[in-house]
Amino acid sequence: MGINLEAIEKAVEVSREHLEKQWDAAGTGSLSNVPLLALNLRESLNWRMIELADGVVLCLKKKNFLSAAVLSRSVVECVALQHQLL
Predict the structure, then answer these.
(1) Helices marked H in 2-35
(2) Could you give the C-alpha distances from 21 to 24, 59, 61, in angstroms and in order?
(3) What digits encode the pLDDT tens for the residues 71-80?
(4) Which residues of 18-31 are buried (b: 16+ CB within 10 A; e: fewer)?
(5) 68, 38 in Cβ contact below 8 A?
(6) For the chain, which residues score pLDDT lower than 70?
(7) Radius of gyration from C-alpha coordinates of the chain
(8) Are 56 and 8 in contact, with CB atoms under 8 Å apart?
(9) Element (H, E) at 47
(10) What is the pTM of this model?
């Protein structure tokens, strides 16, 4: 059983495509019951998660599995923080 690097790269790319390129804070804040600061933090965590996932892919390509594991843990912590936040 090996690592399917192509599937990981595709998942990261799909996640990146779903990120908003520009965030309308005023519009989002007026439509949501969640405080604007929380929405801003969530958006920042989304971008950070993608950056970390890019690092995971890069480490896997270089066969640096220890660094990939550490970065993967960071991605999971970003997701957990998002769920606690909202």
Answers:
(1) 5-18, 25-31
(2) 10, 26, 27
(3) 999 999 998 9
(4) eeeeeeeeeeeeee
(5) no
(6) 1, 22-32, 34
(7) 15
(8) yes
(9) helix 36-61
(10) 0.78
